[in-house]
Amino acid sequence: LFGAIKAVFLSWESKRAKTYRKLNHIPGDWGTAVNVQSMVFGNMGDDCATGVAFTRDPSTGENSFFGEYLINAQGEDVVAGSRTPLYITKKAKENAGAKDESMEEAMPKVFKQLKNIFIKLEKHYKDMQDIEFTVENNKLWMLQTRNGKRTATAAIKIAIDMVKEKLISKKEAILRIDPNTLDTLLHPTLDEKVEKKVIAKGLPASPGAASGKVVFTADEAERMKNQKEDTILVRVETSPEDIHGMHAAKGILTARGGMTSHAAVVARGMGRPCVSGSGEINIDYEAKQFKVGDLTVKEGDIITIDGGSGKVMSGLVPTVKPDISGYFSTLMKWADQFRKLKIRTNAETPQDTRTARNFGAEGIGLCRTEHMFFDDERILSVRQMILSKHLDDRKIALDKLLPYQKNDFKEIFEIMKGLPVTVRLLDPPLHEFLPKTEKDMEEVARSLNLGVREIKNRVSELHELNPMLGHRGCRLGISFPEIYEMQCRAIFSALIECKKQNIQSVIPEIMIPLVSTEDELGIMRKLVNRVADDLQKQHKVKINYFVGTMIELPRAALRAAPISKYADFFSFGTNDLTQTAFGISRDDSGKFLNDYLEHKIFDADPFVSIDRDGVGELVKIASERGKKHNKKLKLGICGEHGGDPRSIEFCSKAGLNYVSCSPYRVPIARLAAAQAELLK
Fold first, then answer.
1. pLDDT of residue 460
2. Which one of 42, 136, 359, 522 counts the least CB within 10 Å of its CB?
3. pLDDT in tens, 203-223
């Protein structure tokens, strides 16, 4: 008997339960107890039964009893699958086209008693109940009740219906919904009824499910899309050069990388399913195949990926389209009534911008300009600009890029009319844009009237051992101010065109990346002001704009006071701030982070949920010091943490003005921000 009691306690306080308690700040003393009592029996004849029921439908949230029962059976028989259970209600039986009597028909008196108890329990607990019961010799016995598990769709409907039924308040309804579950409402999911053959697993980097033919290059993904073929882009890891292929593919699978690797971040922004860091797959680009153990998957073979679970499956698995009902919109409106934190989005294409706006984004907190440079029409000009040895040649290449950049910004400004748009000037190291193949080098050589060997030497000169800590961000602006001048000219020209066409004006926020000293920002601010002044005089028009910086280096956080002299805003780039604070590469950390979680060195992946003690402390220091010296300073976050509910709670407490996240996480952020405010 004592062994049984101990087993119950141990099952309650499992490892998972302990982790859940720790993450959700639940005290260790749960006040639990074990009841020891004699059993009742549902298997003593035809006047006995057993069943499991929910007071509402846990799949749809419909306010009707949902459950199954068996005559002359014990509880295990209902769930074991050895016998087919029968429906509790007559309505459910008729909807399913079943012939056997429902409990409502076979045991009407007991059913009526059960129905009254269901109503009483739900009114008492003010939530949908999951109930187990037994009937012994026509007498009903209630075995247990608990709050029932439910789908995201059901959770929203039940919460809103219970507000209308005056069982709970709007505040309680908002706090009941797990923001992370909203992902399942915004993306296609796998059909649960279909059998699946899982061949590999990775990290659930971007939710949703997709099937398609395996391709190994971005160009092939684009070519197949033009032929109306669905593809899954399989790469060891992705880079900005793969952007066009990521747009073309239905999903992305990588062998390396973590939850905030390039593939994960970009896929989430696009709303593409992505499984990253699947170390089980061994990719052979030359043979155009990958292996998982003894299984070989060749280019053209069909696979399915589930970005919500990290599973990779062979063959085509049907998906179910998301259904965002009116209940979802109601929940979002209620959340907006309580939250104070503004929600922006990370977007740099018209499609992403529109998606985010439709999901309720209140501006763009990060518009990355480098992805615009990889378009086929402009990459040659970009390479000419980088590989030119003389300023005049660079300016010729930049003049070619200017109209493209201006049109990019104009499209985004038209969609975001009236809302703030933060544009980050060129950030990545130049090596990412350089030609790698012989064919590309020959093309650049011809355009610059140089020999191929000369181009190869120039590429070699620009090579860096650690480019992510090298010649990038504002350092490019210091060395090649003409690049940032072109980008500012494009931004302000787009703004002027919008004004002339009476399009509601946005106020652009020019973000200078990778600043570590006040002098860097001071020099860059003068550059931005100079370009704005030139265009204002030329077009006789007033331009409103802000200049700020991305705080992504520990030194910048510590030196926030003098840096704030030149800044209208700080935007915390917590992806790089986490990398530089820990000295960990987010693309490679997947190899050992599980060990750190297992040994409880980390409570959570610091690239997914902000490290409050270290990175969070740097954010607080920078916010306090910056605000002290510049009371008008606006504070936001644009790293991937901007879409994580726990990180949003931290940002709310830290006094930030906004968070910015990928378009498909905007609803999650809206709900999480409301919860953070209600829990203060």
1. 85
2. 522
3. 888 888 999 999 999 999 999
DSSP H helical ranges for 203-282 = 218-226, 243-248, 262-270
Joined together, the tokens standing for residue 453 give: 């060997």
Number of Cβ within 10 Å of residue 332's Cβ equals 19
Give the DSSP H or E segment for 661: strand 658-661
DSSP string computed for 544-563: --EEEEEE-SHHHHHTHHHH
Mean pLDDT of 160-172: 96
- Give residue 385's identity as a one-letter amino acid code: M
* DSSP code, position 585: -
Over residues 339-358, mean pLDDT: 94
The length of the chain is 680
Dmax (CA) for the chain in angstroms is 97
Distance CA 23, CA 604 (A): 9
Query: Which tens digit of pLDDT belongs to each residue from 351-384?
Result: 899 999 999 999 999 999 987 887 777 888 888 8
The CA distance from 260 to 250, in Å, is 19
- Alpha-carbon gap, residue 426 to 474, rounded angstroms: 8
CA distance 384 to 381: 5
Residues whose CB falls within 8 Å of the CB of residue 134, separated by 6 or more in sequence, listed in order: 40, 41, 42, 48, 49, 50, 51, 74, 75, 140, 141, 143
The pLDDT assigned to 25 comes to 53
Q: Residues near 509 by Cβ (< 8 Å), separated by ≥ 6?
A: 420, 421, 422, 423, 545, 546, 547, 548, 568, 569
d(CA 586, CA 491): 31
Q: How many angstroms separate the CA atoms of 529 and 439, rounded?
A: 41
285 and 187 in contact (C-beta within 8 Å)? Answer: no
Answer yes or no: are the C-beta atoms of 200 and 193 closer than 8 Å.
Answer: no
Low-confidence winner among 388-392, 512-516, 518-522, 628-632 (lowest mean pLDDT) = 388-392
Given a cut of 50, whether residue 573 has pLDDT beyond it is: yes
Phi-psi region of 45 (alpha: psi -120 to 50; beta: other; left: phi over 0): left
Strand 86-87 with 302-306, pairing: unpaired
- pLDDT score for 20: 47
Spatial distance between the Cα atoms of 528 and 546, rounded to a whole number of angstroms: 10
Q: Higher-confidence residue: 589 or 596?
A: 596
- Rounded CA-CA distance 157/173 in Å is 10
Instruction: Give pLDDT tens digits for 77-99.
Output: 776 666 778 899 999 889 878 88
The CA distances from residue 498 to 362, 492, 510, in Å, are: 19, 10, 17
- The whole-chain average pLDDT of the chain stands at 90
Distances (CA, A) of 520 to 168, 524, 527, 626: 54, 6, 11, 16
Distant-in-sequence, close-in-space partners of 35: CB < 8 Å, separation ≥ 6: none
**Triad 34, 35, 39: Cα angle to 5°:** 135
pTM greater than 0.85: no
Query: How large is the average pLDDT for residues 272-283?
Result: 91
For the record, the structure tokens of 676 come out as: 């953070």
Q: Compute the distance between CA of residue 660 and CA of residue 343 in angstroms, rounded to an integer.
A: 6
Q: Quick one: average pLDDT of 547-563?
A: 98
User: How many angstroms separate the CA atoms of 415 and 599, rounded?
Assistant: 47
Q: Which residues are catalytic?
A: 262, 638
Distance between CA atoms of residues 10 and 276, nearest Å: 35
Which pair of structure tokens corresponds to residue 582?
Answer: 């820990």
Residues 6 or more apart from 408 whose CB is under 8 A from it? 348, 369, 372, 490, 494
260 — pLDDT class (breaks 50, 70, 90): low
Q: What share of the chain is helix, strand, coil (3-state, %, to 5)?
A: 45, 20, 35
Neighbouring C-beta atoms of residue 190, cutoff 10 Å: 22
